[in-house]
Amino acid sequence: MRIFIITGISGSGKSVALNALEDAGYDCVDNLPVSFIHDLAESLSKQGREKLAIAVDARRGHSIKELPDVIDKLNRNHDVRILFLNANTETLVQRYSETRRRHPLSQSNDTRTPQVALIDAIEKERELLSELAETAHNIDTSHIKAHTLRSWIQDLLKDERPGLTILFESFGFKHGVPRDADLVFDVRCLPNPHYDPQLRPLTGNDPEVANFLREHSDVQAMGDDIRRFIETWLPKYQADRRSYLTIAIGCTGGQHRSVYLSNCLFDYFEKRVQTSGGGELHLLKRHRELESNSTK
Prior knowledge:
By secondary structure, this protein is of the alpha/beta class. The protein folds into 2 domains: 2-158, P-loop containing nucleotide triphosphate hydrolases (Rossmann fold); 164-293, no CATH class. It contains 10 helices and 9 strands.
């Protein structure tokens, strides 16, 4: 059975992700007690069900600490993926303000201070879930709309074969470094098409910008260095038996240089996969700022 455990910070989009998985044919359960997860999976497996998604969050308190052991047990017979959704505190506070909902950890057991401030509740939740975040595929939803998150979930589901999935993600430093990044490369030192009035409204996906950047030897050298770094250390990441590796390429606005180099790296490794016959390596590409802007 393929099992997705969806967890993360409240307000970061777990319900959106669960709905996307339900649309993809998964049996979905929200806020299931940790102690019930293994029995539910075994029961559905015996019934011939092949896909299960379970959302678990800090509403379960310290019992969430038992989840890694449950996942290890499930992995003996099933293919388990952990999806961790996150967002920066400023975005979470704004979302709670817009929805006027309470944070699940806003109630305190201390009778002297029965209410917990929202920011304190968010930080407490981060602490409770920190161990899970280290072993999961992380998605930072700070700058994206709900339907963009659904699209990203659908991309993850397109390739459900075992092995390592590499995600090349472009972003703009002025909007913050993606929380889901495993490796971050800063390309702000490269020539910037933004200062050319004809190139400014275009993106790294446009041939005019690509031609401009291709003509600069520094751009080629930076791309080659990043490629060599990835090729050198990729076997170690594969040996670590992880499912996802997110490589983030950042420039100032996430529109030109980072998009172009992300495309170049994706194309290079895609050709490498095709030449080698695929195997244990799968590729995805995402342009955070371009996709975020397209939803506004």
